[in-house]
Amino acid sequence: MPHLRWQSCLFVTVNAVIISLLSFDGPVGGENVPAALRRVGLMLTDFGKSDWIIVVSAFLLFQGWASSRIAVTARDRLQALRISCIGGYLLTSIALSGLVANLLKRLIGRARPEHFQEYGIFSFSPLSGHSFESFPSGHATTIGAFFAAFALLFPRYRIAFLACALWLGMTRVMVGAHYPSDVIAGLALGGWFSMMLATVYARHGFLFRLDGTAGWPQPKRLFPALKNPAPFERRAWSVVYGMINPWRGYLGPLFPAGRSGR
Known about the structure:
This protein is mainly α. Helices cover 65% and strands 2% of the residues.
């Protein structure tokens, strides 16, 4: 991606995690969260569960596709296809980032705050079970992917979406389930997946376009040349393949998918 180098994003994320680890995780683990703050967190934290987002996204994907097949006008068909692609984009962003977050959590095996008195903040025991493993936060990963996707789809409101992601992600700290560094890492991981998949979609001409001046994928208003269903179906299969092997669509001219002119 032009102007928005992944190395810079990774550098900022790693430093934010380290600063949080050294400065905030200890005090958070050693103190009980106030009851009022905990109640607020409990009311909001389940937003980060991925199951409801996956169900809604899958519904949008298949309902939009089905509606496009029976639409009478070209405008209605384009709108239905756009909804279908948004559903597919959300589904893949949430599902793939969640799978990676859970895999990392199992392999890293950092103790949760409830085990602070026994293990502290630097205890790592891989494959110790979900109730023990903390880093990165799965809820925060889902929240990061969800709001980053909407920030890319509707860039006019991206500051509001990113603020929502930060506040909802930190509810995991309010309920005592995670350290701040767990949340920061999860938000960054989810956001990176949404950015990467938006780039894959843009390479294949879906939903986004690559804008060299902005530095990240920009939303497209309409799909080009979709009155004939054949081109759309061919590109649908190609973007599915790009999501199965994202680097083919992400790395651009180094791979065939990146040379697509669509």
